[in-house]
Structures are given as C-alpha cells and as structure tokens.
Design brief:
alpha/beta, 9 strands, Rossmann fold, 9-stranded mixed sheet, hydrolase activity, hydrolase, globular
C-alpha cells in the first residue's frame, strides 16, 4: 500500500545544534574540493586512502564479527543482546572515491542501538584505484553471503550519499535477476544522477556546504569510466518504470541544503508512479548526510522513522 503523502517536511527549521554544526562546517576544510580542477588535483597520484578504524568501544558495547566479500572486509555489529530481527547491509558514502569516514561509525552505532538491528558494514574498494564495477561486484558478494544466512525479507539495504546509490543499484540488479529481494530499502541523501542534469539543482548549490555541481560532475565522469554517466546503469534516477516497480518499500531522507534533494524528489515521484511504497522525508536547512550528526534533533528523528519503518 502506498503511503498517503510522498514527501513530508519533518523539520520546518533547523535545531540550534544543527545551526552550530553548520557554522563549524562552513569554516572547516571541505571534504571535497569546491571545483572540478581541485578535485582532479587531489585525486592525481594520491596514496590509497584507508578506512577509518572501528572505535575500540564497539567491542565493549556490541557483539562484533568480521568476514569478507570478494576479499574485502565486512564488519557485522549486533546489539549486545544478540542478533536483531532485521539485518542491515550498509554502504558508506564518500563519492565512491573516499573510504569509510570516522563519522560513519557513530551513525552505524546509533542505528544498532535505536533500531535494535544488526548492521553489516562493507568496506568496499574505492575509485579510481578500483573500478566502479568492482564496487558493485563486492556488494553483490556481500548480499549473497547475507542472504544465505538470513531471510532476505528481513534484510534492509541502506547507504548514505554514494553508498545510497550502491544500495539502490544492488536492489535493482537483484530485481533484474528475479532473485530473492531485500525486504526494505532505506536511502540517506542518495546520489541518484552522476551528471546532476536537473537545472533546479543550481538554486540549492549556494546553501550546500559540502557538495558542488562541478566537483560532482567531475567525480561522476571518473566513476562512470567508459560508460555513459547519464545512463541508468550508473545513474539510477533514469531506471525504467518496469524495473523500478520491482523494488521493495523505500524511504529516503534528505536535507533541503543538500544538492541531492532535487533528484530525491524526482525519484520518489518515479517510484510512486511505478507503484512502489515510497516516501521522502525532508529537513529544512539540513546539510548533506545530516543524520551522521547523531546528537541533533534531526538525526534522532531519522532514527525514529527508520525504526518505525522496520516495525511496520
């Protein structure tokens, strides 16, 4: 059954803590350079980036296990009481070119604690040292392993930013193969179009402290490689309706000061038109992947909605 309202504004004004965090963000070194030239300069000849280590406290607060998918590390975190009813396969963001950030780990911990779920974190290889196709292959392998040991209907795919793209792309490949599907799909500020073709995105850019159109287009071209960056294979926004129709219930969370808000709105409309139970939650003045700022009112609301989504 489709939800009544496809788009809901959850926070009409930013919390005081969110305002303070944004003030700090505006004065810090940007995660990504703010122009294509700077992006290429940073990527040229760089040392292979390393994933931020899991906090030592996790082994005290949770049950932690490790395994591999195509030779790449997967960390599974269970509540201290044991495996949750739902198991999340989580993909971190970073434009496909950055490893697991330090801020991703608290987000994972918050989802385990507040939702009572188990979370498997795939530390996938990054572009350009590894092709995007390898990222997909590793994601496929991780899914196959999880689906062997858990009921696929109780697996939720989740990711933020580029990780949201990876989660969605995995679900679409599974649907195309007509195999077992995940029970639900949760996307945090997903990157849906590598080309950012919608002209409405330009109006959001001055408010986005992290993402810039030129930088993302340069990154998207690098990720696409020899493929068309505007093709559905690498830009899920353009997936045909008949393929979208096979997706499970989907929820998207995006801030209004995030370039990806425009494509998130378009995509939820396409999902609804395809008959998918889909909804977008928006947060006024919230930055890209704001849910990783876990102490904020906005992040707590995301966790509450995610828990409700899993309980429904």
């Amino acid at each position: 059954m489709l939800t009544d309202n496809p788009i809901e504004l959850r926070s009409p004004a930013p919390s005081l803590l969110m305002r303070a965090v944004k003030w700090v963000m505006a004065r810090a070194e940007p995660v990504f350079p703010h122009d294509a030239e700077g992006f290429h300069r940073r990527m040229t000849g760089r040392q292979l980036p390393v994933d931020a280590p899991m906090p030592v406290s996790f082994r005290r607060d949770f049950l932690v296990g490790e395994w591999e998918a195509e030779g790449h590390r997967v960390v599974t975190i269970h509540p201290k009481s044991g495996p949750g009813e739902w198991h999340m396969l989580y993909f971190h963001g970073g434009g496909f070119v950055q490893p697991m950030f330090k801020v991703h780990w608290p987000l994972v911990a918050a989802m385990v604690k507040h939702c009572g779920i188990s979370v498997s974190v795939l530390l996938y290889p990054v572009v350009p040292e590894s092709p995007h196709a390898e990222q997909d292959a590793v994601a496929d392998s991780a899914w196959a392993t999880l689906a062997e040991h858990h009921d696929p209907a109780k697996i939720i795919l989740n990711g933020d930013s580029a990780g949201g793209h990876i989660a969605l792309a995995l679900a679409l490949r599974l649907a195309k193969a007509c195999g077992p599907m995940p029970g639900k799909l949760a996307l945090f500020a997903p990157w849906l179009d590598l080309t950012l073709a919608d002209p409405a995105i330009a109006a959001v850019e001055p408010n986005d402290l992290m993402l810039k159109i030129g930088t993302l287009r340069a990154c998207g071209e690098m990720v696409a490689g020899t493929r068309d960056p505007a093709g559905a294979e690498v830009s899920p926004l353009y997936t045909p309706t008949d393929e979208l129709a096979k997706l499970p219930p989907t929820r998207i969370w995006t801030g209004r000061h995030d370039l990806f808000i425009i494509d998130s709105r378009t995509f939820v409309g396409k999902l609804r038109a395809a008959g998918v139970d889909a909804k977008l939650y928006e947060y006024e003045a919230a930055p890209h992947v704001f849910m990783a700022i876990t102490p904020t009112r906005e992040a707590k609301d995301v966790l509450r909605l995610l828990s409700e989504f899993l309980s429904a």
